[in-house]
Amino acid sequence: MNIKLLTLLGLLIMAGGVFAQGQTVRGKVLSGDDGGALPGVSILEKGTTNGTVTDGEGNFTIAVKDGGTLSFSFVGYATQEIQPANQTNLTITLLPDVKALSEIVVVGYGSNEKKDLTGAVVAVKPEDLNKGVVSSPQDMLIGRIAGVQVSTTDGAPGAGSTIRIRGSGSISANQEPLIVVDGFPLDASAVTGQSNGLASINPNDIESFTVLKDASATAIYGLRASNGVIIITTKKGKEGKPQIAYNGNFSLSSPMKYVDVLSGDEMRSLTSELLARGDVPGLTAQAAERLGDANTDWQKEIYRTAFTQDHNVSVSGAVKNFPYRVSYGHTDQDGILKTTNFKRNSLNVNLTPEFLNGDLKVSASFKGTHTNQNFGNTSAVGSAVSFDPTQPVYNGSTRWGGFFSWVNPPSATTMDPNGDPISLATSNPVALLMQTDNRASVYRGIGTLQIDYRLKFLPALKLTANGGFDYSSSKGHNNNPTDAAFTYASGLGQLSDYTGENKSKLLDLYANYNKAIGKSNLDVTVGYSYQRFDREGSSFIRNASQTIFSDNSLDAEGKPIPRQYISNPNVLLSFFGRLNYSYNEKYLVTLSFRDDASSRFSKNNRWAIFPAVGLGWHINKEAFLSGVRSLTDLKLRASYGVTGQQDVSNNPYPYLSTYQSSSSTSQYQFGNAFTNTYRPQPYDANLKWETTAQTDIGLDFDFLAGKLSGTIDVYQRKTRDLINAIPIPGGSNFSNVLTTNVGNLENKGIEITLNSTLVKTKNFKWNAGVNFTHNVNTVTKLLKADDPNYQGVSAGGIGKQQYIQNIQVGYPINSFFVLQQVYNSAGKPIEGLYVDRSGQGGVVSGSDDNKYRLHSPQAQYLIGINSRVNYKQWDFSFSGRASFGNYLYNSIQAGSANYANLYQSIGFFTNMPARIKDTDFYSYQAFSDYYIENASFFKMDNISLGYNVKPMLSDKLKARVSLTVQNAFFITNYKGIDPEVSTGIDNNIYPRARVFMLGVNLTY
Amino acid sequence: MHTPMKIISIKMTIVMLTVFTLVTSCFSDLDPQPLGPNSVTSAYAYNTPADYKMGLAKLYASFVVAGQSGPGSDPDISNLDIGFGIYLRGYWNLQELTTDEAVYTWTEDGTIHPLHWQTWTPTNTFIGALYTRMMLTIAYCNEFIRASAASTDTEVKRYHAEARFIRALAYSHALDLFGNPPFVTEADEPGSFFPKQTTRTDLYAYIEKELTEIEEGLGEPKFEYGRADKAALWMLQAKLYLNAKVYSGTERNTECITALNKLLSRNAYTLSTEYRHNFVADNNTSPELIFTINHDAVHTQTYGGMAYIIHGEIGGNMNAADFGVSSGWAQNRVTPEFVAKFPDTSGDTDSRAMFHTDGQNLEIDDVGTFTDGYAITKFTNKTLAGGNAPSGGSIDFVDTDYPMFRLADAYLMYAEAVLRGGAGGSSSTALDYVNAIRARAFGDDSGNINAGQLTLSFILDERARELYWEGHRRTDLIRYGLLTGSDYLWSWKGNTKAGSSTEAFRNLFPIPAFELAANPTLKQNDGYPGGE
């Protein structure tokens, strides 16, 4: 809502009196939007209290003095002034007001009109965003905002996602943006037992997202701002009669694709072929008799078509001047992997009363959720790809719950179904699912109370106190029964339970002074903020008979403390300020600072100041552009600022020496007693935050009031004092690596957003949007002293001490670090033959010097597209995104597509991808660059068709029915099942599902 | 309504004061607070002798476990396979795989076979793994020595001496394997500084002095199982002096005998009746063990140490269940040259010939094939009586303790020091000691030797027969000048099947490349790139 227009409207209504003098003017007011009549438009004769309002057909009649000027105003439209002169019949077309459209944008500790912003800030509403089975808010942003890459971790129900704003800004520190919900900055780490902290926010309750990208916007969040900020506000009650809304979704999910592996028959024929060749160690005729005669498709055995339902009911309105909104949501989502499930019940209450004639505003909110998650056993995903298809799911074993499992001894040709399991063998995927009970229940409550008080004697000054709490408590377990063969090695049957408790409390106190002085407008905010996080948890793992503990400890007297405890407090304390100055609504200046302290660092490094400056210029308001009527807005922005990242370690006091007690499985025997051990933890007494300096230049433009609008930003983010765990000299500390501030890295890029209303008539409306991002990420420093032989930081573990990625100066983070494959004339890779890049000779694959850095998992170009068509009562929309230049290590192919993998001499067979024929590799070639595949893709994330039923019950009941396909299709050259793997290593993630959804919305 | 300015200012003052109090009261929250039962800041760490005992236990545990939470999580060392970073596993690899006693099957990351081939480079993973663990153990010791220095508690003072012993033990490995390592003591506060390199001669002198100084502070022999006592110290002294020529250029055989005499005169240890008693799950009951690194399948879980040695010896058609473990890892076998040191492989003649030959080839055509080379059955997680391991823990892990020092070794060192001309011992006692070992091995005196047969080369072979796979072989071969060069060749030494000559600089391992990068003040050992 535009406050100014509302005020004007109010004045008009109060004006009341009509003077009839001069001429009488009649006319009609039309909407520039769709050409339809506009009822309720206020018409005022300037300088008088004479006015009227258009009727239901947009018609009006008003008496005007000679030479009088009429002003036409309506919420959401630009006010127009007309001198009727001698015309007595007017047709006025009101154009939509850009200012009104942009409205108020919530920023850190306050809000601004969009036109006054100097930073790269994007505000979006859920109705413009992705629909579908959205169990977490961040999923709605996928592909929608330039520079913001959101990628779901996997397809598990309730899964989290990674969000990167303007690239990866760190190596080991947290890279997720700060998320602020209704003024409350959320804890970056979810409570134990919840895969996604944001899952406790019901997407249906969200009013708006504001994404702060550049330092001018984010620096007010200081030590937590380096990765950008996402501000979420929830829906509040509006004045008027109670409105009841119901929103229900019903959907079916099913796997999109399976890994193409050998069938039982193919497996048997391959075995006899390899047996004849005799080059798989241990694969003898006797061993081959361990093959079964089944044709089990293990992937079909573990997946299902899953049903999801989601219901939301809300009531909103106002009792006198006491607006309220209460909503309840219930989600019950089955995952496509059998047994997995996500359930959420949520309650959201917002009360926004005002007192003392509006001088005292109170905003109280409470969000309560209870989630119940069944995580299942995701090991089944990988097992299903590699489990021998010649074996049946069940073999009637009485010892192992009826399930087939690989048993000893390897020399026996017939396997005793009840034999001792081979502990290193692949586990029966169905048994993994059915014999696992892995569930957690999480309660969370977030409450905030904000009080704004405007001083009576100094109305330009507003004092705000904002307090809140966030409390989560979780309880979970992961149990396996004693007949679970896969628990044999660790002691039959596993019992694991854990609890978690995350608490956070907040107090913000700030004052805002806002005053117009002539053509200048001054808006100053200063304040103080305190936030404390306490995260605690415990875990307890043992075998079913409670004789083997792998996770408990003894106290000083030797009595068992039956749990492993973690505790991770973090306190942040800050003073902040911001000054917005505008001159003549043309020139804008924003200065902000935050003086921040974090308990993560020692007294010497505890406080840091983060300043920022932003400049804006509404070029279209300059005289030389005043003639260009089609140009609704043209704003040039520039900003520079410094932000920090304090979330550098899970150690609450990484600058202090701490002692870590051992679990009961790492004790030492003195005499007949076992003593816990005390380990001094490595530490750097001088550790401090990471610092990012960001420069941004942007241009906002709008032609013909929304016909074509957009934004272009170029930016450079330079991060220094990057936390890196560097190798340290032996004997100098309590580890071989020390986490310390050494590195630098840089992200630079360009973002372009275009939105267009292509067609806009009464019955037909077509909007389309496209966003484009190009980001280049380069590591610029890693060590204190440059060492030409330093191979960088290993990353991306792929098993025993093997890393496929590397972080090195001059390359993007997590570049693949591989050997250069040699191919034969037919283009087929030659096993074990690599280019001797170092020229040292010898065993080429034995030396890291022969490895090189090739591509990275990070996309170089991202494009998001979306479109929405409304035709009469129908609407059709889609959204999709393309990603270019992102590469993946096909770990499934590398790890299992080799013949030696077929049989392990300890007595079990393993399946392999059918694409083994592409390489015919005999043994595991982990580091061949052959497996670095281009994973560029286009994904059609959503296609939706909706129908708005004609209002019923005398226009009070409105209904909409929709059909949506989520993950409709994707196009890629990547040979695995899904090219979107944020780690860059495709290693059997829980697959994303295709979802068909029926949605029903009712409002009354 | 008119509010007098005075009242406004009073109200404002109250508000301001409240706000000020609120704001400033939170400042102290920024300071560290206690963290619950499993983790404490250093200021709260050591209050009672029991706390100190936990600190001490870490020093011992550093030889056997990966970290603070079982075999697979919360490791002490980063960027390394958790199993590889375990002290005993690394020490065993360097002491055994480089000799005729062991060949490893898998390629791992391509750097384990070069140990056997003697073609290792400064980037070798396994050299780096032990180096890292050894220096880390020294750093842990320094921290504990600092923390316990001021204590006047009798118990804590003994812990303090033991910590110095453990440090001396780790430094003796550094002396033996790397020669010129960086040198840090309790005087060096932790940070990211560059420790100064020491020389082999200086380090030798330092260890000698340390051992002399702490002797009185240590407990009497056998005062508590698993603790380093005076007997452990005398063993370490004897080893240091026996190898003094290698370390410092001077023979110190007399001092070796002096140390052994202190040990042997106590009569605290006797040879176990059965040789294999020293290598079973309940070997803590063997009367022969002087210093052990303790394992337990419930309380001390590890994939290094004995779990590695036992799982690793099982492969081919051997049945893991016979050894009381969950599986065989098919890793280590022996060379035919080692097998030839025994009269036959049956074990009927010499019970120490604990070979598994069925399905195995004597000759090693392919280092990477487990069935090439005879397998060993010396170590087991079954008890002496053949029962299951007493702890009842997961059979991924073992109860068998690592016999770092045992009486038979003391006997053989005594005989060798006498033969090498040390004073204070007698040839007849030496012969008696050797024949005591032989008689146990053969079950009667059929294997006994006479004074004429007691030669230095006999001792070396006898040490192989008696102490194989116990982590002594490389040091022994170097003392005899046989590890490198062409005087003694074995299968795949020098990366040829018949064995070929290697260069003498390989008597020392290189300082790992990553360490040279992290600490530019260090100089590489001679013969390796960057050295002289």
Query: How much helicity do the residues of chain A have?
Result: under 10%
Shape call of chain A: globular
Number of helices of chain B: 17
Q: Identify the quaternary structure here.
A: heterodimer
Count of separate DSSP helical elements of chain A? 10
Tell me which protein chains meet in the greatest interface and how many residues each side has.
Answer: A-B, 103 and 107 residues
> Strand-residue fraction of chain B?
5-15%
Radius of gyration of chain A: 32 Å
N/C terminus separation of chain A: 22 Å
Order of H and E elements of chain B: HEHEEHEHHHEEHHHHEHEHEEEHHHHH
Poorly predicted runs of 5 or more residues of chain B: none
Radius of gyration of chain B: 27 Å
Beta strand % of chain A: over 45%
Task: Count the beta strands of chain A.
Answer: 57
Derived from helix and strand composition plus strand pairing, the structural class of chain A reads: mainly beta
List keywords for this structure.
heterodimer; A: mainly beta; five-stranded mixed beta sheet; globular; disordered N terminus; B: 532 residues; mainly alpha; two-stranded antiparallel ribbon; 6% strand
